Structure formats: C-alpha cells, structure tokens
Amino acid sequence: MEYFFRNYYLATSYVLTDIYPIQYGEQQCEEGYAFGPRIRSNYILHYVYSGCGILRIGNQEYSVNAGELFLIKPNQVAFYKADTKSPWLYRWIEFNGSMAERIVSAFGKDGARPVLFDEGGVIGDKFIDFISQGKMAFEPAMERFWGIISGLTKSSADSAPIRSQDYVQMAEQYMKDNLHRKISVDGIAAHIGINRSYLSRLFKKHKNVSPQQYLVMLRVNTAAQYLKNTDISIIEAARSVGYSDYHVFNKAFHSHFNASPSSWRKKQFWQQSFIDDNS
C-alpha cells in the first residue's frame, strides 16, 4: 500500500463571514495512524473512502467506515485513529463561518452525532471533485465547496429543504456581489450547487427570463444608475458592471433602454434640470 499525505491552503483578501474553506487535503493513513487528542479552532470534515477506524469526541467513541463522514467542531477535544489492518483513505476540508452550523445540522439535531452515512455517494463525488483539483485559487474552491454544502444540507432529514426560490435568491445575490466580474451562468450554477439547466428552469419559473437575460438586465440597470447619479464616464460605468468591450455594452444598453448610454444620460440630465427649474 502506498501511503501519502497532501495538503492545500487557501487565502483570499475578501472579508469572510458566511462560510469559507481554509485548507483541504487527502491522506492514505498508515496502519494504526492516530491524531490527537486535540482541540481545533475551526470545523473539519473528513470523508472516508476506504478502510475503517474510530473517532472519539470527549467520552464518546464512534466507529467510522467507508462511505461515512465525520465532523469535528471547534473547541471539541477530538481523537481519531485508523484501523491497524484496514487503515483509512480519507479526504478532508477545514472551514468556518457563521453558516457553518447549517452543515452541522446535517449530522442530526444540534449536530449531536458526528458521523454521517453518505446515501448514494453524492457527497463523496463532490469531495473528489474538490480535492482532485489540487492547489486552487479561492474563487473556484468556493464554487466547489458550495456543491458540498448543498449535498450535505439536502441529505439531512432535520434540515429544511432548500426551496426553488432560495436557489434563485442565492443566484441573484451572487450576481449582485460579482457584477463587476466576468461571471457566467455555469459559474453561478456551480456556486450554488446546482447545474445550469436546473438554474435556467428556476429562473424561467420565478423570473420569466433566463439567468443570462436577468444578468444582462441587472448589469445595464446598474450601469444606468451609475450614469444617472455619478460623474463617471460611460466606459467606466461599463467596466463597473463587467463589460470590458464598450460595443457589447452599448448594444445591450440600447436593447434594454432603446437609447444609447450617452443619449439616455443626456435625457436624464434634461429631465432633472426641468424638475429643478420648476420646483
């Protein structure tokens, strides 16, 4: 058996609050490999792909086998050990944030039992997709991490299922937060843990437009507010909402407002001047 240990750290300049991965990796343990007892400052989630072993949280001991996940929470005294004959191959992610308790809820009420069986192996596939990328930038790592979160929260009988409108709201928020970036519908869908076709169906149902149409409308409406309420140039407004090509921006703006950005801005100025003169 070939033993190995791989570990990757993530870094970002963003202000992190909701949920975020810190490090991740994989390990084929040696026979009888043990870690702890130790207290963690963050959450750490292991997925066991083969082998078996034990997990001890405080005075409670649990058997952990292939196809199961085990969770260690901050400030818990934890010890785990691989079997001496069939040691673990596992992959792990360390994370934290205010939304972390939502993941904990997948392990039962109040996260009482720290071991969860992955029915159908869906979460295991998402773990492989995450870890197999090796070293990643923070943004693609977050997209894959959301897939794991989605799998975990949907696996819990005690967790309220994510409603279709919740996915639409998450997609809207992601668009707004990243409007200045070159984001795609595929990237938005990956970020919230669903596929593109399902996201498109949800937008047609709840918004009566495709995700791409909604993104364009959001971009040009936001640009229009910049043109109306600030002194930035049209090119600066275009770049501020994710357009690097002025001609593409001009076409999208004209299609939505039936006027070029410059004509639309002049009209707003004249209307405001008329209001001011007559007030």
Q: In the CATH scheme, what's the topology name of the largest domain?
A: Jelly Rolls
CATH architecture designation of the largest domain: Sandwich
Give the helix level as a range of percent: 40-55%
Largest sheet: 6 strands, antiparallel
Number of strands: 10
User: Outline, from the CA principal axes?
Assistant: elongated
Beta fraction: 15-25%
Strand order of the largest sheet: 1-2-9-4-7-10
Low-confidence stretches: 156-161
Q: Give the number of domains.
A: 2
List the total number of helices. Answer: 10
**What is the arithmetic mean of pLDDT?**
85
CATH class of the largest domain: Mainly Beta
User: What's the helix-strand series?
Assistant: EEEEEEEEEHEHHHHHHHHH
> Structural class of the secondary elements?
alpha+beta
Rounded to an integer, what's the Rg over CA atoms? 24 Å
The CATH superfamily label of the largest domain reads Jelly Rolls
End-to-end separation in angstroms reads 84 Å
